[in-house]
């Protein structure tokens, strides 16, 4: 086959796991400490990646390179996990957000992993910030959002 998109379309049993569901599960496992070593992280990504719906990618190259980028970026973020303190979780428009409160509730930190267009990322960031403002109106907080499919990171901080 000459065309990679034809190859992807003709795969008999594409995975059924959506990329965002994969990212949500990865953050959930990192934040709770189920994944706490690099080797476990890489093995988990490789194993779960086989379940990803290949039709979300326009080419085989993008499918494979995204997996490699996720492995690389997740390894870089591994030292920040597991979250310490009182942990809370929430879904913001189908995006899993894991957070923690420290210093007796005076500061908070939250994480999200996502992918998509810049407009979608900005919208999700706005919704996550809105939620943090609701539950921490008088406290300092930091929101770190990572598109670990591209390596982009976004950080928003409020100081009180």
Describe this protein's structure:
The chain is an alpha+beta fold and 160 residues long. It contains five helices and five strands; from the N terminus they run ααααβββαββ. The protein has helices at 4-9, 19-32, 38-49, 60-77, 118-135, and strands at residues 86-92, 95-102, 107-113, 140-147, 152-158. A five-stranded mixed β-sheet has the order 1-2-3-4-5, sandwiched between helices. Helix 3 (38-49) runs antiparallel to helix 4 (60-77). The longest helix is centred in the middle third of the chain and has 18 residues, at 60-77.
Features:
160 residues; alpha+beta; 5-stranded mixed β-sheet; 5 helices
Concise synopsis of the structure shown:
The chain has 160 residues and is an alpha+beta fold. It has helices at residues 4-9, 19-32, 38-49, 60-77, 118-135, and strands at residues 86-92, 95-102, 107-113, 140-147, 152-158. 24% of the residues are buried.
Poorly predicted regions: none
Rg is 17 Å
Could you spell the SSE succession in H and E letters? HHHHEEEHEE
Structural class based on helices, strands and sheet pairing: alpha+beta
Q: Could you give the order of strands across the largest sheet?
A: 1-2-3-4-5
Largest sheet geometry: 5 strands, mixed
Average pLDDT number: 88
Present the secondary structure layout.
Elements: H1 4-9, H2 19-32, H3 38-49, H4 60-77, E1 86-92, E2 95-102, E3 107-113, H5 118-135, E4 140-147, E5 152-158
Helix pairs in contact: 3-4
């Amino acid at each position: 086959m000459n065309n990679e998109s034809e190859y992807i379309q003709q795969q008999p049993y594409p995975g059924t796991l959506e990329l965002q569901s994969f990212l949500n599960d990865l953050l959930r496992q990192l934040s709770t400490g189920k994944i706490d070593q690099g080797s476990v992280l890489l093995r988990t990504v490789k194993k779960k990646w086989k379940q990803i719906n290949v039709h979300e990618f326009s080419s085989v190259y993008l499918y494979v390179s995204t997996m490699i980028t996720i492995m690389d970026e997740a390894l870089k973020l591994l030292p920040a996990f597991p979250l310490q303190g009182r942990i809370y979780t929430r879904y913001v428009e189908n995006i899993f957000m894991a957070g923690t409160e420290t210093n007796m509730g005076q500061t908070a930190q939250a994480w999200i992993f996502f992918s998509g267009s810049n407009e979608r990322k900005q919208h999700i960031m706005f919704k996550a910030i809105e939620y943090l403002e609701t539950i921490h109106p008088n406290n300092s907080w930091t929101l770190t959002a990572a598109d670990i499919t591209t390596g982009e990171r976004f950080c928003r901080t409020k100081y009180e």
